[in-house]
Amino acid sequence: MTAHGQGPSRPEELLTVPQVMARLQLGRSAVYDLLRTRQLASITLGRARRIPAHALTDFIRTRLEQDAA
């Protein structure tokens, strides 16, 4: 038995651009610039862009480390 929320069967949370905009408090253009410059990882499903939640967490962590340096 595994604890809830652990193990390989847990699907990756995928965020929409508007969700990322809200979490970062940035406009659409700024988020798409981060995606275009590959500072923020994403996947494309058809015509839809999705950002894995861990990619957003990694982006924030990286920026915090850069600002602390």
TrEMBL record:
<dbReference type="Pfam" id="PF12728">
    <property type="entry name" value="HTH_17"/>
</dbReference>
<dbReference type="InterPro" id="IPR041657">
    <property type="entry name" value="HTH_17"/>
</dbReference>
<protein>
    <recommendedName>
        <fullName>Helix-turn-helix domain-containing protein</fullName>
    </recommendedName>
</protein>
<feature type="domain" description="Helix-turn-helix">
    <location>
        <begin position="14"/>
        <end position="63"/>
    </location>
</feature>
